Amino acid sequence: MKLQETPVPSVEWLTLAILAGNYLAWFGLLSLYQYYPLASVPLLGLCLAMHLSLQHELIHGHPTRITWFNDLLGTPPISLVYPYAEYKRSHLEHHKDEQLTTPGVDPESFFHTREHWNRMGPLSKALWWANMTLLGRLLINPVRSAVNMAVLCVRQLLGGTPVQRLNWTGHILGVSAILWLVHSVFSVPIWAYLVAAHMGHALISMRSFYEHRVANDPMKRIVVVESCRFFQILFLNNNFHAVHHRHPGMPWYRLKAKFLRERDDTLERNGGFYFSGYLEWLRFLVRPVAPPVYPALLTGPDT
Description:
mainly alpha; 2 strands
């Protein structure tokens, strides 16, 4: 007998509390930099990674049923990444499971078509091969994302729609205000904050490193990493990624219980694409998880 899911409350106070705590921790860590610089930078990195996880939760309609209010909560660009509106647009496009991993269609794909690959120079190819290793993803992907953001910013400011220009103008002003606050009010060097932002983005890049693989069945492209409690909290249970894709509107705090109740069914649906923790990915530290040319060969059987 299938259990009836408890309705999602109209206000998810736990998520709101974590979001408020995240912003307060950000202010607190900036204040502590002058006293504990070596400790505050990595802690800021964790804080910014949590902010990115919270933005992901907001994108999916949490913690309230008021869309504009959720969007307002996620808009402050303390992580210095894409404008929230652009992140929301591209991520919801990514949730069309039938196009997962397809280059040029899935906005979060790390693969390239053969035609695009053949037009690349040797350095670009080497960087993309490195980006398919865990070490490369941690070091290269935050920088690659920043470069892509700058290119997209210029392109849409010059030739985008009025809404796109407004989004990027607001983002530039927001990032400028954040960096002014960081440097002028809290006396944190810009380079130190950029290091923290890189660390935060690197942690999220680790989570997404092998979230998706190439497979004929879209559901078999999506991983489950059971992981430890620390990463479950930091990623707001998005490590149970196959569950999230099947139930994208489910709040983060229900994903683990859903997986545990339906473990066998979930792993059957995703073809056993499962890891007990992120330590298992150390085998890909310097070895590519898959070729960057689509369709990529898999490290395991294509189920």
